[in-house]
Amino acid sequence: MKRKANLITLAAMAMVLASCGTTPASSAVPSSSAPEVVSSEAPSLVDYAASTHLDAKYNDYASKNFLTDGYGRVDLVRKIDGDTAHFYVHGTKTNLIKSRYNCIDTPESTGMLEPWGHGASERNGELLANAKTIILSTDSTDQKGESGPVLDSTGGRYLTYIWVSDEEAPTVDKFRLVNLVLVQEGWSKQKGASGKDFAQAFLSANTQAMQNKLKLWSPDPDPDFNYEGAKKCDLKQIVTGYNTEGEKFDWAGSKACFDATVVATGPDTGACYLNEDIDGVRYGIYVFTQYRKLDPLTKVGNRINITGTVTRFGGTEDGEETGGATDEGALQLVDAQYSPWHEEGEIEVLETGVQMDPLTGNLADLKKPENVNVIVSVDNLVCTGGKAVQDTAAKSAYAFTLYCHDANGEEINIRIDDGTAVYPGDMPGGDNAQGRITSVDYFKSATSISITGAMVTYYGRYQIKLCNRMGITVTGGQVPA
Question: Measured between alpha carbons, how far is 390 from 369 in angstroms, rounded to an integer?
Answer without folding.
Answer: 30
